Amino acid sequence: YSAEIFFLEFSFFTFDDLLEICFNALPYTLEASPSYDYYLWNTGETTSSITIEEGGIYYVTGFADCATFIDSINVQVIDPIGLFPELGNDTLVCEGEWEIILNTPVGFNTYEWSTGETTNSITVTDEGTYSITVESDCEIFTDEITITAVSYTHL
């Protein structure tokens, strides 16, 4: 009798990918390649996917045939911006010439006023309702204010 013996070399692949997710996307599911027969995550789980609650470096060891593969991913969670547009309470102004500067905090990625302007502040001289929509990497906020001009006799 004779037999051929084949030795397969230990296979090691590391994909040190960076994945940025928003805080409001948690919990988040990480999925390993479906081509493995068995799985072992550094969290101790043995399924093809895991649900994570926080950022960090996650490893999965996948076993297929006579080879072992290791994949890793660095999950970074983008925190809330901690800023909010606060235009204030609706406002009464006296008829005549006036101007009000409406401000929102600096630090958002985009600003979109109902007037079409795209800066963090605008100057208004007409009564009406003004709104702002601001976006960060993970959040969208909207605020509005109504400015009403009244005659001196109604104050």
Describe this structure in words.
The structure is a single chain. It is built from no helices and twelve strands. It has strands spanning 16-22, 28-31, 38-41, 49-52, 56-64, 67-78, 91-94, 100-103, 110-113, 121-124, 128-135, 140-150. A four-stranded mixed sheet has the order 1-6-5-3, with no helix packed on it. It starts with 15 loop residues before the first strand and ends in a 5-residue tail after the last strand.
Task: Name its key features.
four-stranded mixed sheet, 12 strands, single chain, 155 residues, rod-shaped, mainly beta
The assembly state of the depicted protein chains is single chain
Major sheet = 4 strands, mixed
* Number of helical stretches of at least 4 residues: 0
Query: Regions with pLDDT < 50 over 5+ consecutive residues?
Result: 1-9
Instruction: Please state the structural category.
Output: mainly beta
Total number of β-strand segments?
A: 12
| Backbone shape | rod-shaped
How far is the N terminus from the C terminus? Answer: 110 Å
Q: How big is the Rg?
A: 28 Å
Mean pLDDT, all residues: 88
User: What proportion of the residues form beta strands (DSSP E)?
Assistant: over 45%
User: Secondary-structure element sequence?
Assistant: EEEEEEEEEEEE
Strand order of the largest sheet: 1-6-5-3
Helix fraction? under 10%
